[in-house]
Amino acid sequence: MKIHISRFLTRTILVLFFAATLNAQDIASFEKKITVKKLSNGLTVLIMERPEAPVFSFFTHVNVGSAQEVQGITGLAHMFEHMAFKGTDEIGTTNYPAEKKALEKVEQAYAAYQRENLKEVGRDEKKVEQLDAEWKKAVDDANQYVVPNQFGEIVESQGGVGLNAGTDWDETTYYYSFPENRLELWAYLESQRFLQPVMREFYKERDVVMEERRMRTDSSPQGRLVEQFLATAFVAHPYGRPVAGWPSDLQSFSASDAKNFFHKYYVPSNITIAVVGDVQAAKALPMIEKYFGRIPAGPQPEALRTVEPQQHAMREVFLEDKSQPLYVEGYHRPNFRDPDDAVYDVMSDLLSKGRTSRLYRSLVRDKQIALAAEGGSFPGLKYPCLFYFFAAPNQGHTAAELAGPIHEQIERLKTQDVSDEELESIKTRAKADLIRGLGDNAGLASQLAEYQAAYGDWRELFRQINRIEAVSKADIRRVANKIFTPENRTVAIMETKPPAQAQTGKGGQQ
To answer: Domain-by-domain residue ranges, the chain?
Structure first.
């Protein structure tokens, strides 16, 4: 009895603590510290004054990811992310006018090489070899003007930390932190790389990206399985294509393709920037307008037209490899704007969050047939995506054995109410996660920019907690019954490849 009372008191104290903390950090208190302005060219800037230390962090969100690519240029969104660190017309070069001419010759030579190399009829091997040599000579000529890594060196020499970026299916992001007295330097650097990017060392960096793909996908059993899983689950929508790109595209797209991609999608109206830290909006905004206002406005990119058709039959992928077996299962679900989006968040927490989650307790702790098990939404949320289940079997078990126990947990969601204790814990953790995300400048900048870009209002970051709070037991059963159906299921299995049978000679002697 004492144990039950202790747990009850602990949960009550946690709920009261998080409620009080959220109350102190509610929308009204944030509104006093946040300024949002859309510049005349369409770029959205969000500034949050947080003078707890003489530093600031920023997060640049560009509303373009691999979902905006088309066949032939897959991987280009990620490729341009790499190019954004190569400098500008003023950074990373010893003589930009000469370099610009040299880069133009590179593109002319590469286009000539590709025209001959891609011919299906009448391809001249000797001419291909000659044009390849001319293109590579042009690349060498252009490289003589390059000052490698100068952009990053400037940031780090001026106290910048955490310089990085990321690309996924939905977005491309850039971020780092600076001392507060480097705000103008940041505004210049960050705006300049979107005002005057230079496709220098493009083909060298293309090889780097190709090597990343080999390491993360081609040489990774899990990477190959997930790539095949998505390609099978999505027959029309670009969520079925890898962010890394298909190998043939990585070996053929050009710096001209990257420049066209940039001009189409890196327009100010497609960019949101959040700055959080020891900055004053009254002083910072004129400075930000001075630099970012230089970026010319452009037409808003058209919305993605392709919609994944409804799935009518179960789909399966089976791979064998000399590796750890793996099991993946997915079901199509709506995007983040769906009224039931919070229900999927609750189900993900219920199934996957920590050692008390249902998948861990059932498959890992109790049955001991899995090393790990989880579930959630993937690969993006901007468009209808998947609710997935992932598990790795324990030694002595196959990946296929995990299907039954996972389906048991799915049936529980469809037929039985979650307990009051489980639902209460999920809602408490959601509040705790929000508070933790507000704990530092970088985390705040990323969340504010993400929600401002996705919803057009950063306040939705707080309203999401209210939506989770409103989720009921009946909601969970209803949504589970709607999407967890056999005809909506895609399964991908990786089993360990059995060793080759030893060759035997006469009389069974090896």
So the answer is: 2-31, 44-292, 315-496
For 356-387, how does the pLDDT look when each residue is reduced to its tens digit (9 = 90+)?
Answer: 999 999 999 999 999 999 999 999 999 999 99
Q: Which residues of the chain have pLDDT under 70?
A: 1-25, 500-510
Which distant-in-sequence residues (6+ apart) come within 8 Å of 257 by Cβ?
73, 76
Nearest alpha carbon to residue 429 among 352, 334, 340: 352
Q: How far is CA 484 from each of CA 93, 386, 399, 403, 480, rounded to the nearest angstrom?
A: 55, 11, 20, 13, 6
∠ at Cα 447 (359, 337), nearest 5°? 70
Question: What are the DSSP calls for 138-170, one per residue?
Answer: HHHHHHTTB-TTHHHHHHHHTT-EEEEEEE-SS
CA dist., res. 389 & res. 391, Å (int): 7
* Fold match flag (44-292 vs 315-496): yes
Tell whether the torsion through CA atoms of 434, 436, 437 and 438 is positive or negative. positive
**How far is Cα 312 from Cα 487, in angstroms, rounded to an integer?**
5
Cα gap 19→87, rounded to integer Å = 46
pLDDT for the residue 46: 98
Tell me the C-alpha distance between 439 and 449, whole Å: 16
DSSP class of residue 122 equals S
CA distance 475 to 341: 11
Angstrom CA distances, 400 to 322, 329, 485, stand at: 16, 11, 18
- At 183, which amino acid appears? L
pLDDT of residue 23: 44
How big is the chain by its Cα radius of gyration, in Å? Answer: 26
Tell me which residue of 345, 386, 123, 102 sits closest to 237, measured CA to CA. Answer: 386
How high is the pLDDT of residue 497?
86
- What the block records as the tokens of 301 is 């990119």
Establish how many alpha carbons lie within 13 A of residue 321's alpha carbon, considering only the half-sphere containing its beta carbon.
17
**CB of 221 within 8 A of CB of 321?**
yes
Phi, psi of 501 (to 5 degrees): -65, 135
Q: Which residues contact 296 (CB under 8 A, 6 or more apart)?
A: 41, 268
CATH annotation of 315-496: 3.30.830.10
State in Å, rounded, how far the first CA of the chain is from the last one: 67
Instruction: Provide the CATH number for the domain formed by 44-292 in this structure.
Output: 3.30.830.10
